[in-house]
Amino acid sequence: LPVQSAITHPRPGTAVPAGELTVKGYAWSGGGREVVRVDVSLDGGRSWQVARLAGKRPVPGRAWAWVLWELRVPAP
After folding, report:
1. Is-contact 26 9, C-beta < 8 A?
2. GO CC annotation: what is one (predicted)?
3. Please, are residues 58 and 6 in contact by the beta-carbon 8 Å criterion?
């Protein structure tokens, strides 16, 4: 399967204060393959930023669960 991902924070429609914002989510793949990278677009796909993967890295070939990710971005 291609990597699937979801944003969990902030929730859709949430007003965020100006400053720095942490966008969080999770990603998963199939067939025991490890998620090695999550790219996030905050402008409808015009540009992309690489999120930081959180937590311990799985043993290669045994990545049967999701991985958490986060990205700190400026919020105008």
Report:
1. no
2. mitochondrion
3. no
Confidence label for 68 from pLDDT (cuts 50, 70 and 90):
very high
The CATH number that applies at residue 11 is: 2.60.40.650
Exposure string of 31-66, with b = 16+ CB inside 10 Å and e = fewer, is eebbbeebebeeeeeeeeeebebeeeeeeeeebeeb
pTM score: 0.81
Do 58 and 28 form a contact (C-beta atoms < 8 A)? no
- Which residue range(s) make up the domain with 27? 3-75
pLDDT in tens, 9-63: 999 889 988 999 999 999 988 777 788 889 999 889 999 999 999 876 666 666 6
CA 48 to CA 51: how far, in whole Å? 9
Look at the chain and report how many structural domains it folds into. Answer: 1
